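Quick one: structure tokens for this chain, please?
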Amino acid sequence: MKSTIVRTWLCLSVLFLSSLAGTAQTNNTAVKKNVTKAKSIVERIARSKFDSTYVALPRYQWMVFASGNGNYSKYHLRVPIPDMIDMWEAEDIAAHPTLGDMDVYTHDMDLHSGTQSVSLGIAYRTLRLKYSFNVSKGNDRQISFESLGSRFGFMFDYRQTKKMKGDMYDANDGFNALLDNIDLSSADVIKAGTSPVDQNRNDYTLLHLQGHYVFNYKHFSYSAGRSGSRIQKKSAGSPIALIDFYQSRAKFKSDFIIGENERYKTWKLSLGAGYGYNFTPNAGKLLIHASAIPSINLFRHSSYRTELDFDQISETDKETYQGMVDQVKDVVDATPKITLNFTARLSVLWNINTHYVLGAYGSYQHSNFANKKDYSIRENFFSGSLWVGYRF
């Protein structure tokens, strides 16, 4: 699988860029040779063993496509701050009873984003490159690449989302009240509070790499249901094995817990197994695909970083502020728990003729991270798309 992925990546730039020079009848012999070799590799991957009574390649090798998409993302962050009570002396706690209930002080943030985007892409056999940009928010973007062979497949996805809306719980009214009373001069009750997130001051990025193996590859085509790069002539299904690398980063320029430019970064490596099925009532003219793959996190890590402006903090408070930052880092860096993820897809493709294909799909992806100090990040992505492709 590794060698196939490497070769695919190496020939991608040659195939999508250098082929233009080759088809323009350039005199550069080296370019022509590289284009021919790249096409040979892709063609060999595309024609890797499958039962031609169940699966077929489209008549034409190239396809351009465009789609309109609806996307909804939800991000939940929980950061418990333990041992808050240790910051004060016993006599101070007696004078301010509310501190006695603050052995763990939990901060929660819920963010969500609903956007509409347009995607443009090009595909050659099993290679597929796509760029998406939002029409509702011009600063959001997504780039994805797929290489889907009969048995092995590889997918790369990068997305960036800004201006997510949402609420912070216990972040302002509660925590800022605590800071205001840090010298315990006030007997005011420290309250848990809710406040809206400043949507102009957050930034979320995701890097997702995924590889899969189709067991019944001779009869079932995963790519037929995903991209139309093959045609499923008879209904069939297959177990699917999955390896998944997932890295997300949430950055907040506003004060969530403490400091400016707080960054919560998580990565994990997961293994999963699921099932996919392609149903066609008319030899591939119409195809309905469904797949679901749960996975489990095997290796995972999370980190925290913030920036403190000590010029704005009094000398007496610097040690306290730094102690809070150290507590957050300690919580975030705690031993991770084993958690489950889930991905599912439902799609419909209509091969109108040898040139045109019309498709629609809905997908759901759930990612979960938690550790033994109850720090957690939950991410959910819903996508729906209507697309049209032209083969040539």
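DSSP finds six helices and 16 strands in the chain.
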